């Protein structure tokens, strides 16, 4: 990520007008961004690992896009609909005659996004740096009508009966195929206290609760606060609890779970990261009661077997699908044996 480099270049070139007051920054992922602009920054970041990292570097963090700011910086995401929605939201909180800086990578479609802005907003200087671009948007004139469409396109919408998603969340267009495999294979086996790791917008937990009265509690752990808020609306069963958390850093709870279910992510950017799913396997072992069972689904090409060996004394592969492996694991190893 080089959003900070592009911002520093824009400051050095004098492309960002001076402001009186803090600048709102939407979706920053690099702590270095805090040093790239000579102004106080207020950061909105719904992804818990990035939120926590920014906090460790002293960032001022907010959980809602509200208030009034002289300017805003938007770090484009891989979802163009989400990015355009953020631009519309920024317009509504930035003062007239202020500015919005949009920065993003070419691989995430920043060129096409900037092209979409032209003719709708006043796009000023565009800086190319670090395999990406930064565009300055002048907040002037009447509010353009397309902003309403951009906000609507990024908002919650129903993709399955009783379930809503939104632009930018995992599996935004419908039910994930891996979650379907997991639900079909393990829902009849669930009972007692259950943890759903990487719960997304809640489909897996919602279906499990509908099918199994033997479940006494199910806790949904999700790093994306937008997805978790959707899950709160999608899963209204009183047995459900919701936790905005980085699953990979979850400590061992005082009261552990009878079952853990997970469809782990395997990337946070365009590059795959098998270590992320392996960290989910380790987390499931920490959360699981000695007599409990973990059920984890994974794409067939992902190397999770060694993680199961390291964290469980027994595991097997259940019947999955041509695309997905479905694992069942028991007897989590102690911290000493895992270390």
TrEMBL record:
Protein name: 16S rRNA (Guanine1207-N2)-methyltransferase
Record EC number: 2.1.1.172
Gene3D superfamilies in UniProt: Vaccinia Virus protein VP39 (3.40.50.150)
Keywords attached to this entry: Cytoplasm, Methyltransferase, rRNA processing, S-adenosyl-L-methionine, Transferase
Pfam families on file: MTS
Alphabetized GO MF terms: 16S rRNA (guanine(1207)-N(2))-methyltransferase activity; nucleic acid binding
Family annotation (PROSITE patterns): N6_MTASE
Limits of the Methyltransferase small domain: 165-327
Keyword Transit peptide assigned: no
EC class name: transferase
């Amino acid at each position: 990520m080089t959003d900070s480099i592009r911002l520093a270049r824009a400051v050095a070139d004098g492309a960002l007008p001076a402001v009186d007051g803090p600048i709102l920054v939407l979706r920053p992922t690099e702590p270095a961004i805090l040093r790239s602009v000579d102004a106080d920054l207020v950061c909105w970041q719904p992804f818990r690992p990035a939120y926590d990292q920014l906090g460790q570097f002293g960032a001022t963090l907010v959980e809602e896009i509200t208030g009034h700011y002289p300017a805003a910086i938007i770090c484009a995401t891989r979802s163009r609909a989400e990015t355009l929605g953020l631009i519309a939201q920024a317009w509504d909180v930035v003062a007239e005659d202020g500015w919005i800086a949009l920065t993003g990578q070419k691989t995430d479609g920043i060129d096409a996004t900037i092209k979409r802005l032209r003719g709708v907003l006043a796009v000023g200087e565009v800086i190319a740096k670090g395999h990406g671009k930064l565009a300055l948007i002048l907040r002037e004139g009447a509010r353009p009508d397309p902003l309403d469409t951009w906000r609507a396109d990024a908002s919650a919408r129903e993709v399955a009966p009783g379930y809503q998603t939104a632009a930018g969340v995992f599996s935004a267009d419908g039910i994930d195929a891996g979650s379907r495999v997991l639900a079909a294979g393990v829902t009849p086996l669930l009972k007692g206290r259950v943890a759903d790791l990487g719960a997304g917008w809640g489909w897996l937990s919602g279906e499990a609760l509908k099918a199994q009265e033997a479940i006494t509690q199910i806790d949904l752990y999700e790093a994306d606060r937008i997805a978790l808020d959707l899950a709160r609306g999608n899963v209204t069963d009183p047995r459900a609890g919701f936790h905005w958390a980085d699953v990979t850093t979850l400590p061992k709870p005082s009261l552990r779970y009878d079952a853990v279910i997970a469809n782990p992510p395997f990337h946070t950017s365009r590059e795959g990261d098998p270590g992320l799913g392996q960290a989910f396997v380790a987390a499931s072992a920490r959360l699981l009661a000695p007599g409990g069972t973990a059920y984890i689904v994974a794409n067939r090409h992902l190397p999770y077997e060694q993680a199961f060996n390291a964290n469980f004394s027994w595991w097997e592969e259940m019947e999955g699908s041509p695309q997905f492996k479905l694992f069942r694991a028991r007897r989590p190893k102690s911290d000493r044996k895992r270390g």
